[in-house]
Amino acid sequence: MSYQVNGTAIEADEDGYIVNLDEWSKDLAEEIAKAEGLPMTDDHWKVIDFLRNYYDEFQIAPAVRVLVKNAKKKLGPDIGNNKTLEAMFPDGAAKQGCKIAGLPKPTGCV
Amino acid sequence: MPEAKKFLYVNRKAPYGTIYALESLEVVLIGAAFEQDVSLAFLDDGVFQLTRDQNTDEIGVKNFSPTFRALGDYEVTKLFVEKESLEERGLAPSDLQEIMYEDEDDDWEEKPSIHIVSRSEMADIMADQDVVLSF
């Protein structure tokens, strides 16, 4: 599959994760979120930024419990808890969050 | 709940050139979701996996060495490196990257995950495991 951003096709795998991580942009994130049926809020962007920073630092898309634990530390307990994150990303905070953030599927996610 | 089994992942190969090192790390990360008492051992050329300032630009593969620093987030906090293997390769402990974890039971104090052990200590560590997986 692919996403269309400003007239360019961005290639993605069959689950919707982009193939070339360098092709990510905020416009693309909006496009992926739209395809997922997810309206992006400021809090969503905070989680996306967090995920991208985590990947930058560790070269890994975090598992969901690692995301929750670290989001609590970095973004505070209002966002960094299971209930809120699952409500924000109904298809799984790590799985869906990483897709929108233009990262690989989290290691260990099936 | 039954007591967690002790798993040791033994890493003997250089980080690049074969897929063993990366596969081992991925198995560790996936396995970390289960209730296991996980340790990692680095010996022979495996000690090169933990060297600092790795740069893979010229060989066109991903530098996954930063991922070792995320292991603490996955509650994998015991990385044993064999002293003799380092010495035989002209490496010192200071050639290895710093890997820290926050100790939940000690007010989240930051502690080093890497422990340098002798060959005989490594043998004792191996003997003490329920499961040893070699990569």
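The beta strands of chain B are 5-11, 36-42, 79-82, 100-103, 109-112, 114-117, 131-134.
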